[in-house]
Design a protein that fits this description.
Layout (H helix, E strand, L loop, with lengths): L1 E6 L7 H16 L2 E5 L3 H6 L2 E4 L28 H12 L3 E6 L1 H14 L3 E5 L15 H22 L2 E6 L6 H10 L3 E3 L7 H13 L5 E6 L4 E2 L5 E2 L2 E6 L5 E3 L2 H13 L3 E5 L11 H19 L5 E6 L2 E6 H5 L7 H8 L4
Helix pairs in contact: 1-9, 5-6, 6-11, 7-8
The structure holds 6-O-phosphono-beta-D-fructofuranose.
Length: 347
């Protein structure tokens, strides 16, 4: 069999571990030919590929990013995008595509399978951890680890200067990174899109904290959180209203807006740190390396078992094959139960 592997969407720690695992599984156990597609779906449109073999994937396990490159290309949004992909798959003699990505990349994989009978297998990736059907995505643990380290370090300045330190973390439409790093780092308030805290509630929490003699605080804000007032007024902060090929606006800046409202009501010096792409870069944690490797091995096995239109998913401690449709049907949001754990430590 000839298998193509591609990585799409935002880069994420653990992508190389998956590429390595798929390649090693398919070559060693099943004597397949494995080809890497450059820059996600774009490479299948432009026919840019590279061979993958034991040598090429040697040493990449701990490396961040993706040796294949990535893009946010949506072939269904491009003139003749899908036709060119079908033409190139046939021309290159590719039997199956292993697509490693989040909701967008896997959404394309699902449509190519359902509408054009392309033989696809998916692997769930995103630092945001918002993909349904799998308990965790790889990359998330690394992002949480980096954010937690940042919160730990920001405590020094917060405490020494009697300041409120606002930390803006990624997560787009869900607050997974914010809640998990906030719990791990002992945040005094956490703002996420799922369960908004009003400005008044935030200020009350901080006032109570100050009343207990604590003149500093750490506030973690998820980039997609809105600023909400008790009156019902809401403010969403975007870096740009322009959307990408999948219709996503670019977040960024809500931390600064939160700092301003806190400073206005509390009259305490407040500073902002936006972690941004730092959360996506560098070497994956051991947990992410292991999860990515298990996903990659499972994807290789799924190819051999002709489990098309499915995705490797973590359920408890088992890796299972689930329909791609179950993964892209809706976003996995932070459950109230988890947010309640974080809330106990607010203020
Ligand atoms: O989905 C991962 C993610 O890092 C989000 O947390 C963030 O909103 C988005 O990607 C940023 O996308 P881009 O790399 O296109 O700026």
């Amino acid at each position: 069999m000839h298998i193509a592997v591609l990585t799409g969407g935002g880069d994420c720690p653990g992508l190389n571990a998956v590429i390595r695992a798929v390649t090693r599984t398919c070559i060693a156990d099943y004597a397949c030919t494995v080809t890497g597609v450059i820059n996600g779906w774009r490479g299948l449109i432009t026919r840019e590929t590279m061979p993958l073999n034991r040598n090429v994937v040697s040493g990449i396990l701990p490396q961040g990013g993706t040796i294949l490159g990535t893009s946010r290309t949506n072939p269904f949004n491009e003139e003749e995008g899908v036709e060119r992909i079908l033409h190139n798959i046939q021309g290159l003699g590719i039997d199956a595509v292993v697509a490693i990505g989040g909701e967008d990349t896997l959404g394309v994989a699902k449509r190519l399978h359902e509408e054009h009978r392309v033989q696809v297998v998916g692997v769930p990736k995103t630092i945001d951890n918002d993909l349904a059907g799998t308990d965790y995505t790889f990359g998330f643990d690394t992002a949480v680890h980096i954010a937690t380290q940042a919160i730990d370090r920001l405590h020094s300045t917060a405490e020494s200067h009697n300041r409120i330190m606002v930390v803006e973390v990624m997560g787009r439409n869900t607050g997974w990174i914010a809640v998990m790093s906030g719990i791990a780092g002992g945040a005094d308030a956490i703002l996420i899109p799922e369960f908004p805290l009003t400005v008044e509630e935030m200020c009350d929490l901080m006032r109570r904290r100050i009343g207990r003699g604590k003149h500093f605080a750490i506030v973690v804000v998820s980039e997609g959180a809105k600023i909400v007032w008790a009156s019902g007024r809401e403010e969403a902060v975007l870096q740009t209203a322009e959307t990408d090929a999948f219709g996503h606006a670019r977040f960024g800046g809500v931390g600064t807006a939160v700092a301003k409202v806190l400073e206005d009501c509390l009259k305490i010096e407040t500073r902002v740190t936006t972690l941004g792409y730092v959360q996506r870069g560098g070497t994956p944690t051991s947990r992410d390396r292991i999860l990515a490797t298990r996903f990659g091995v499972k994807a290789g096995e799924m190819v051999q078992e002709f489990e098309w239109g499915k995705m490797a998913a973590l359920k408890g401690d088992h890796i299972e094959a689930i329909p791609l449709a179950d993964a892209v049907v809706a976003r996995k949001t932070v459950p109230l139960e988890l947010y309640q754990v974080a809330r106990i430590f607010f203020g």
